[in-house]
Design brief:
CATH class: Alpha Beta
Number of domains: 1
Distance between the termini: 14 Å
Number of strands: 16
Low-confidence stretches: none
Largest sheet: 9 strands, parallel
CATH superfamily: Divalent-metal-dependent TIM barrel enzymes
Strand content: 15-25%
Order of helices and strands: EHEHEHEEEHHEHEHEEEEEHEEEH
Length: 315
């Protein structure tokens, strides 16, 4: 597997401070030892309104100079909104992201079925507000009805993917998707060679070795993208510890399930990217959210952490 840096890490959303520009992100990825970058499909990074073909080619040239691959783009779409006007706007946005992906020289676009979004409140990013709105907005509609809307949208977007040579990678991300079985159900119902899978182990409820292996075997050759996350620290013996942070609380150690995941990916002969993302509520120091130096530290340790796991599971 190759190790990528997902640009949401430097979007200026979760830490205190400004976003890196995409050219700066490319050089930061180079400095930290990444193979490629995945561009988040919203401002200030990858909104297609800001990226005509000429500008995409310029960024591709910068990436080529740095020896960094632009491996894909990530959509933050919601195809389950009850308003048809919103769903149609989302389809239009994804169509433009597909165009931008191709113009950047990439061939993969990560997509959601549904997404509650992120809001800023009192200067801080939070999932809490939009996530709490989700059940209120959707309470009158069954999951099967929303599923149908999403299927219709993905059928159309997969056609746009075919036109541009771009593969959509459906992530096992809530709220409508519960697990990899839901992802595979949708992929099969859409029935397009331009819709595949982005299986991410942090999103799995059961992270046991057996569950990870079962999910990997189920998705098989459909797996085309993946992500990892969390925070990291270097221990006194020089090794790196990875851990989750949930609602500000330090949680589960991540090394074991990432090792199991890497091993499972080898079994299905997955040779694509696993990209690091820092996209959760970060700690506060002296009453202020940590700054961009926190992102630098974790992105650097993350690359080293995942490379060690990939090497370890090679034998």
């Amino acid at each position: 597997m190759k190790v990528g840096l997902y640009s949401i890490t430097y979007l200026g959303l979760w830490y205190r401070g400004e976003a890196l520009t995409l050219p700066d992100l490319i050089w930061k990825a180079k400095e930290l030892g990444y193979d490629g970058i995945e561009i988040d499909g919203k401002r200030p990074h990858g909104n297609p309104l800001d990226w005509p073909k000429s500008r995409c080619r310029e960024l591709q040239s910068i990436a080529s100079e740095a020896g960094i691959e632009i491996m894909g783009v990530a959509a933050n779409n919601d195809f389950a909104n009850p308003a048809p006007e919103v769903r149609e706007a989302q389809i239009c946005h994804v169509r433009e992201l597909i165009r931008m992906t191709a113009d950047l020289g990439a061939d993969k676009l990560r997509v959601f079925l549904s997404w509650w979004g992120v809001s800023r409140h009192q200067g801080r990013a939070t999932y809490a507000i939009t996530e709490s709105c989700w059940p209120v907005v959707h309470e009158a509609f069954s999951e099967e009805e929303m599923w149908g809307w999403c299927r219709e949208a993905l059928v159309e977007c997969a056609q746009y993917g075919r036109e541009h040579g771009v593969t959509l990678a459906l992530q096992n991300h809530p709220p409508l998707i519960k697990d990899h079985c839901d992802v595979l159900r949708m992929v099969k119902e859409v029935g397009s060679p331009h819709l595949h899978v982005c299986l991410d182990v942090p999103l799995m409820k059961d992270k046991s070795a057996a569950a990870i292996e079962m999910a990997a075997q189920a998705v098989g050759t459909r797996q085309v993208m993946s992500h990892f996350g969390g925070e990291f620290e270097r221990l006194p013996d020089g090794t790196i510890r990875g851990y989750e942070r949930n609602d500000g609380v330090v949680g589960q150690d991540t090394r074991q399930y990432y090792t199991d995941f890497a091993r499972a990916m080898r079994q299905i002969k997955y040779h694509g990217y696993i990209s690091y993302e820092l996209c959760h509520q970060l700690p506060e120091v002296n009453g202020e959210t940590v700054g961009i130096e926190f992102a630098h530290k974790n992105a650097g340790l993350a690359a080293e952490f995942m490379r060690a796991i990939i090497k370890e599971t090679a034998v």
